[in-house]
Design a protein that fits this description.
The complex is a heterodimer of chains A (about 110) and B (about 110). With about 110 residues, chain A is an all-beta fold. Chain A is about 0% helix and about 50% strand. Chain A is built from no helices and 11 strands. Chain A starts with a strand and ends with a strand. By secondary structure, chain B is an all-beta fold. The mean pLDDT of chain B is about 90. Chain B is about 0% helix and about 55% strand. Chain B is globular. In chain B, the strands form 2 sheets. In chain B, strands 1-3-8-7-6 form a 5-stranded antiparallel sheet, with no helix packed on it. A 5-stranded mixed sheet of chain B has the order 2-10-9-4-5, with no helix packed on it. Classes of the chains: A mainly beta (about 110), B mainly beta (about 110). The interface between A and B is medium-sized, with 21 and 22 residues.
Chain lengths: ~110, ~110
């Protein structure tokens, strides 16, 4: 069974630029999560989708971050404009449903200069 | 809100046993996850405890005390490949599901 796929794996941008990350969850997984992991810390949930609906986005900085999962499968996370403090690993995870074990993708490492 | 406390770093010798503790204070609680994260890689699922007590899974065991807000991960017969960060994540009550991860404990296994 294929795991969670993410791209790109690495991205370097300058502050105030825009960037987008893509995630393809495990087939059949209804729930999709985006996390931000800053170096030396645990992952912090940004947004949770159930199919194509948002379950929780309370920790998403909505002035600059946006995410969508239009067809209930793939998802994109966008940052516009990026700040230096957005440098982190962005992890996508999926599960069969809320409360089930989450499986993580390899992450996208973002460096904002 | 949630408050999760884990030691930042630990060092142990190959072949030994190590216990990684996690204490948590949450506004609600359903169960607790442990994840392993090797440097530069994504977290991978290790264990999930709902009931009090010890659950053993090969070299790894996880313990939970709901009344004390306490869990630990026990790693036996340590191997060099066990060098990683170990993340504790309490699960909120049914209906919420969002995991809050601790900062993780970085375990270094030395020869």
């Amino acid at each position: 069974e294929a795991g969670v796929a993410q791209s790109p794996r690495y991205k370097i941008i300058e502050k105030r630029q825009s960037v987008a990350f893509w995630c393809n969850p495990i087939s059949g997984h209804a729930t999709l999560y985006w996390y931000q992991q800053i170096l030396g810390q645990g992952p912090k949930l940004l947004i949770q989708f159930q199919n194509n609906g948002v379950v929780d986005d309370s920790q998403l900085p909505k002035d600059r971050f946006s995410a969508e999962r239009l067809k209930g499968v793939d998802s994109t996370l966008k940052i516009q404009p990026a700040k230096l403090e957005d440098s982190a690993v962005y992890l996508c995870a999926s599960s069969t449903g809320g409360g089930e074990t989450q499986y993580f993708g390899p992450g996208t490492r973002l460096l904002v200069l | 809100g949630q408050n999760i406390d884990q030691p930042t770093e630990m060092t142990a010798t190959e072949g030994a046993i190590v216990q990684i503790n996690c204490t948590y204070q949450t506004s609600g609680f359903n169960g607790l996850f442990w994840y392993q994260q090797h440097a530069g890689e994504a977290p991978t699922f290790l264990s999930y405890n709902v009931l009090d007590g010890l659950e053993e899974k090969g070299r790894f065991s996880s313990f939970l005390s709901r009344s004390k807000g306490y869990s630990y991960l026990l790693l036996k017969e340590l191997q060099m490949k066990d060098s990683a960060s170990y993340l504790c994540a309490p699960e909120p009550p049914t209906g919420s599901y969002q995991l809050t991860f601790g900062k993780g404990t970085k375990l270094s296994v030395i020869p």
